[in-house]
Amino acid sequence: MTIASSTQLICFAVLSAALLLGSLGVVLLPNIVYSAFLLGGVFLSMAGLYLMLNASFVAAAQVLVYVGAVNVLILFAIMLVNKKETLAAIPGLPLRRVLSGLVCGGLGVLLLRVAFITPWPLPGPTPVGEEATIRIGEHLFSDYLLPFELASVLLLMAMIGAIVLARRDVFASDVITGEPVDQGLLEKTRTPLLSEIPALESTP
């Protein structure tokens, strides 16, 4: 085994371990902020695997689209919403977790069986090289035009949903006292009284 092949094997093992551990963290961690950050790490690990396959354009698109757009959008939605509510106890939660674990374990065993039994062609196809970007563009706008447009609509719907969730409702009257709300404070055309108190105290 040469130095290049051993280095490639080590990089593949590190990226695969980061991908698997990050995916488990996204699903199992109770803190949704940590899950979102780990999701970004999963996307970066996938970009590293694409680089090992000489797919530089796909790796760059992975970083730009998923890490730079989708993951950032998820983080902004989490930070803007920031709603804390007490969730009711879910009936039969341990049984549901066991069933979900069995389903996920069965899918994992099936994928491993396919990976080890399938006669993969070795060596693989000849790399296209610099023409890879041209080939991808041709396929995106011919064979995969409908999935490409559907993905664009899905991202637009996610952005609209984040805006709707982060929107703050403004009431014309106080929900507790029933008195009308000062529209000058809402529109930020007048400073609040509390901010004027230090200025009044500093005057002789």
How would you describe this protein?
The protein has 204 residues and is mainly alpha-helical. It has a domain at 7-82 and 127-173: NADH-ubiquinone/plastoquinone oxidoreductase chain 6, subunit NuoJ (Four Helix Bundle (Hemerythrin (Met), subunit A), Up-down Bundle), CATH 1.20.120. 70% of the residues lie in helices and 0% in strands. It is built from eight helices and no strands. The chain has helices spanning 3-28, 32-52, 56-81, 93-117, 132-140, 145-166, 183-186, 193-202. Helix 2 (32-52) packs antiparallel against helix 3 (56-81) and helix 3 (56-81) runs parallel beside helix 6 (145-166). The radius of gyration is 26 Å and the shape is extended. 5% of the residues are buried. Residues 194-203 have low confidence and may be disordered.
Could you give a short description of this structure?
This protein has a domain at 7-82 and 127-173: Up-down Bundle (Four Helix Bundle (Hemerythrin (Met), subunit A)), CATH 1.20.120.1200. It has 8 helices and no strands.
Summing up helix and strand content along with how strands pair, one would put the structural category as mainly alpha
Distance between the amino and carboxyl termini:
84 Å
| Largest sheet geometry | none
**Fold-level CATH name of the domain at 7-82 and 127-173:** Four Helix Bundle (Hemerythrin (Met), subunit A)
The H/E string reads HHHHHHHH
What's the rounded overall pLDDT mean?
Answer: 78
Q: At CATH's second level, what is the architecture of the domain at 7-82 and 127-173?
A: Up-down Bundle
